[in-house]
Design goal:
Chain B: InterPro entries: AAA+_ATPase, ABC_transporter-like_ATP-bd, ABC_transporter-like_CS, P-loop_NTPase. Chain B: This is ABC-type multidrug transport system ATPase subunit. The complex is a heterodimer of chains A (373) and B (300). Chain A has 373 residues and is mainly alpha-helical. Chain A contains 14 helices and four strands. In chain A, strands 2-1-3-4 form a four-stranded mixed sheet, with helices on both faces. Chain B has helices at residues 41-48, 70-76, 92-102, 111-121, 134-146, 164-179, 191-194, 214-219, 233-242, 267-276, 291-298, and strands at residues 3-12, 15-25, 30-34, 56-61, 64-65, 77-80, 152-156, 183-188, 199-204, 207-212, 225-229, 246-252, 255-260, 283-287. Chain B is elongated. The two termini of chain B are 35 Å apart. The chains are: A mainly alpha (373), B alpha/beta (300). Chains A and B meet through helix 1 and helix 8 of A and helix 2 and helix 3 of B.
Chain lengths: 373, 300
């Protein structure tokens, strides 16, 4: 016990003496949290919108006013011809072009219908989809409006049938992306820092040769490993705490669920990551190698965690792969507990999987750590 | 309580690092492993300190088997690797405390053993190890290797890269440790240090050439050695190498060590030959063989 305590003490001394690493451990992650949470949103705003009005009627102007009134669109200009609009889109000056045909108003009045041309720059497919939805919404609301305007007395018997859907967004009523992203990004930071630090730590002792000196001492494997990894467990928990404080103070993310449950889950989760770090360091000889391997897994874990893209939309084989992704469980649990107030029973499947993962990972790591080569 | 090595072999893939090594180090002996870089000294140290497992053969350290009792051995040996391997970002005192703690002891408990060495660096005990000079680092490393009062001390090239004064001091320290009852196995590429050991093993390419006291090894040198010098060293060596009766020619400081194949060698004859080679200021003197000469002869 005294030995473990002394190693922990030594590790902390080394961490706090490393003037280059300190800001990397504590300041950069929080900067990332603040920047990423504000930047990583799926909302599409400031869409560069232009139109070609071939009709020049009161109806067409009314439609364009609708777009001007929307906060999503920046109505830039009126192009005289389609060719000019196309070349402007090619140059990237506009994202969406609305083409109103001539006789737009006349057709509406005579035939009760008219067509509109919409061109959307779809290089970013996701953004194009969102833009399409916005455009459709605006045209629909214009549609309703125009119907009542155009309806004549004889038409009043024929009531238009309209089905309205009024969505209720539970757990995040205003669809605030920050509420959704902050818990996820917090997960990333805790994972990244603990994995990199743990992965590099023992390799560093290999590199500077101290591991050899340690290996000839009667110290037990378990003492050394616990002593080496425990400080990073503490740092992980510390990062979680600071992150949660920031989430509450800066982003006003609701914390519906039990903090205790969040900490309990994280304490086990970090064990998985530390085990992984140790495992990596057992199979590498330099910090550089360890860093690259850790980075490789990190990128896969992040992209397949459901943080940025929903797991439900991945191909089936990829969905099976995500079962082995610890970050996925952590993201799920954080979102469930923080936003939905899930209890122990709700997160039990994730908790059990994480515990099993921690046991396997640490088992492998301790088994592969050899004092003799 | 010494060391016994019998028929140890170790290879890394195709490279045979050690071949059939056997020797005994008696309790309380200062035993030297002398050989050039790459001779297999470090591999042997790593096997004896239980860091590496040999392919073949057996070895015991302080009466304990390196395979079966490796845990027990680790309590009783001190190892100072060739490369400085303490924590550069910890101070002298913290390093020493750290190793004392993981050996389950404290600085105070074994202070008398390291006192001689530690007092020299104690004034700087709050300085980080990375900021120490080479000689001080080496003293710290030795203190750390001694902090748990080991029965056997392994020193892998402790004086490589250390200035001559510190080297001399270091060997004096070793002599004092020996008097305190510690068995010491030390390796060095410096032949002049070999004479300071009780017994030495000359090792090259993973094989032991000879084991004996330094005096006996020198005595067994089969030839008479001559110190030859002249005005032009380079030309002298070339001329001697071209001489038909030469046995060996090695530069040795300001002289060239020369041995002849004939038993009735007459230095005057050689002098005449060298003069014919346009060399002047020629001197040819008989001299004593050194460990280096023996090594060169054996390694031939």
């Amino acid at each position: 016990m005294k030995i473990i305590f002394y190693i922990i003490q030594k590790e902390f001394k080394q961490i706090f003496r490393n003037k280059g690493m300190l800001p990397i451990i504590f300041v950069l992650p929080l900067l990332q949290l603040v920047i990423l949470s504000n930047a990583a949103t799926f909302e599409v705003k400031n869409i560069k919108f232009a139109y070609i009005d071939n009709d020049r009627s009161s109806s067409s102007r009314a439609l364009i006013e609708k777009f001007e009134a929307s906060t999503y669109f920046n109505v830039l200009t009126n192009f005289p011809s389609e060719a000019i609009a196309s070349s402007a889109m090619l140059k990237g000056e506009v994202d969406v072009v609305l083409e109103i045909p001539s006789h737009f108003e006349r057709n509406l009045q005579k035939e009760k219908r008219s067509n509109l041309g919409i061109t959307i720059n779809a290089i970013d497919g996701a953004a194009a989809g969102v833009e399409n939805v916005y455009v459709t919404q605006i045209i629909q609301s214009y549609n309703k409006h125009i119907k009542t305007d155009l309806m004549q007395i004889s038409d009043t018997q024929i009531r238009p049938v309209n089905i309205d859907t009024i969505p209720l967004f539970w757990y995040n009523e205003t669809l605030n992306y920050k509420t959704y992203m902050v818990p996820g990004i917090l997960v990333l930071l805790v994972t990244m820092i603990t994995l990199f630090l743990a992965g590099m730590n023992i390799v560093r002792e290999k590199e500077i040769g101290t591991l050899e000196q340690i290996n000839v001492t009667p110290i037990k494997k378990s003492q050394f490993i616990i002593g080496k990894l425990f400080p990073f467990w503490i740092i992980g928990m510390g990062l979680l705490t600071i992150g949660l404080l920031l989430a509450r103070l800066i982003f006003d993310v609701p914390m519906v669920g039990s903090l205790l449950l969040m900490y309990a889950y994280t304490s086990i989760y970090i064990l998985v990551i530390l085990g992984m770090g140790l495992f990596i360091s057992n199979f590498t000889d330099t910090q550089q190698q360890a860093m690259f391997i850790a980075w490789f897994f990190m990128v896969i874990f992040i992209l397949m965690s459901g943080l940025f893209t929903p797991i439900e939309s991945m191909p089936e084989w990829a969905q099976i792969l995500t079962e082995f992704n610890p970050i996925k469980y952590f993201v799920e649990v954080m979102r469930m507990v923080m936003l939905k107030g899930s209890g122990l029973m709700d997160i039990l499947p994730q908790l059990i999987k994480t515990i099993v993962y921690a046991l396997i990972m640490n088992g492998l790591a301790v088994w592969s750590y050899k004092k003799t080569s | 309580m010494g060391i016994s090595v019998s028929n140890i072999s170790k290879s890394y893939k195709d490279v045979k690092a050690l071949q059939n090594i056997s020797f005994e180090v008696k309790p309380n002996e200062l035993f030297g492993l002398i050989g050039p870089d790459g001779a297999g000294k470090t591999t042997l140290f790593r096997i004896l300190t239980t860091l590496l497992i040999a392919n073949e053969g057996e070895a015991t350290v302080a009466g304990l088997d390196v395979l079966k009792d490796f845990k027990e051995i680790r309590k009783h040996v001190g190892y100072m690797p060739g490369r400085f391997s303490l924590y550069q970002d910890l101070t002298i005192e913290e390093n020493l405390n750290f190793f004392a703690t993981i050996f389950g002891t404290s600085i105070e408990e074994n202070y008398d053993l390291i006192k001689d060495i530690y007092v020299q660096i104690e004034p700087f005990k709050d300085r980080r190890a990375g900021k120490l000079s080479g000689g001080m680092k080496q003293k710290l490393a030795l203190s750390c290797a001694l902090i748990h009062k080991p029965k056997v001390l392994f020193l892998d090239e402790p004086t490589t890269g250390v200035d001559p004064v510190s080297r001399k001091e270091f060997w004096e320290m070793l002599k004092r440790l020996q008097q305190k009852g510690i068995t010491i196995l030390v390796s060095t590429p410096y032949m002049d240090e070999a004479a300071l050991c009780d017994r030495i093993a000359l090792i090259q390419d993973g094989e032991i050439l000879q084991i004996d006291t330094p005096e006996n090894i020198v005595k067994q040198y089969p030839k008479t050695i001559y110190d030859v010098s002249a005005n032009n060293m380079y030309q002298l060596i070339n001329s001697l190498k071209a001489y038909q009766h030469k046995h060996s020619v090695y530069p040795f400081g300001e002289f060239v060590h020369y041995t002849d194949t004939r038993s009735d060698f007459n230095p005057k004859e050689l002098k005449t030959y060298l003069e014919a080679q346009n060399l002047s200021n020629i001197s040819i003197e008989r001299t004593q063989a050194t460990i280096e000469d023996s090594f060169m002869e054996l390694a031939k």
